[in-house]
């Protein structure tokens, strides 16, 4: 059994799954998401629950459901919530997001979030390990199916935020818009100033008017390789 570790000094406890390793992606997404007045949220494909956990720790009035296809990962998400005494506001549900209409009523949530697989089936190496394959490529859920689920789950005016690859932004925006989710905020993530972006943080809103706000790039490291001010803030580094 994996051991619990503190995400930062005095921060929440977390244990990792061998299939879903702790990544910068989810941590950056948690920082990007604007919870605002939202009270009910869902993490689509929550894995072992890092995004669910961070959103709950940062927003005391938020209630979160983590939805995960793999039973082992869903169970680990539940354990992580329990280790931080968050069972009252958070839960892990083992289920297939493609069955969203059976699992939840339309508009059940104020916000949805996801750190989805980045690559379509057939694009590059697919791990023989089912869990790792599902985390990397769309073997169990396509981008279109993800956007369809998010659009069903959030009410009009609700948000859907995700972290994705910049090279698929065009496709992402098309899929979001096709399901009534209007892209409203975009922040690109770069390793260093002047380097090509490696990630894209996107917020969309159900039924919103067109109009995309492009925020300044999130730079992770200075030219000398030391963590940037934003990186230090996000990771609670002194």
Output mean pLDDT: 91
Largest sheet: 9 strands, mixed
Q: In whole angstroms, how far apart are the ends?
A: 31 Å
What is the H/E order?
EEHEHEHEHEHHEHEEEEH
| Share of residues in strands | 25-35%
CATH architectural type? 3-Layer(aba) Sandwich
CATH class: Alpha Beta
- According to CATH, the homologous superfamily is Vaccinia Virus protein VP39
Helix content: 25-40%
Shape: globular
Query: What's the total helix number?
Result: 8
Radius of gyration: 17 Å
| Structure summary, number of beta strands | 11
Q: Give the uncertain stretches in residue-range form.
A: none
CATH topology: Rossmann fold
The structural class is alpha/beta
What is the compact description of this entry?
The chain is an alpha/beta fold.
Describe the structure.
The protein is of the alpha/beta class. 29% of the residues lie in helices and 27% in strands. It contains 8 helices and 11 strands. The protein has helices spanning 24-32, 50-58, 71-83, 100-103, 130-136, 143-153, 169-178, 229-234, and strands at residues 5-6, 13-14, 40-44, 63-68, 90-94, 109-114, 154-164, 181-192, 197-206, 213-214, 218-221. Helix 1 (24-32) packs parallel to helix 2. The longest helix is centred in the first third of the chain and has 13 residues, at 71-83. The mean pLDDT is 91.
Key words describing this protein structure:
238 residues, alpha/beta, Rossmann fold
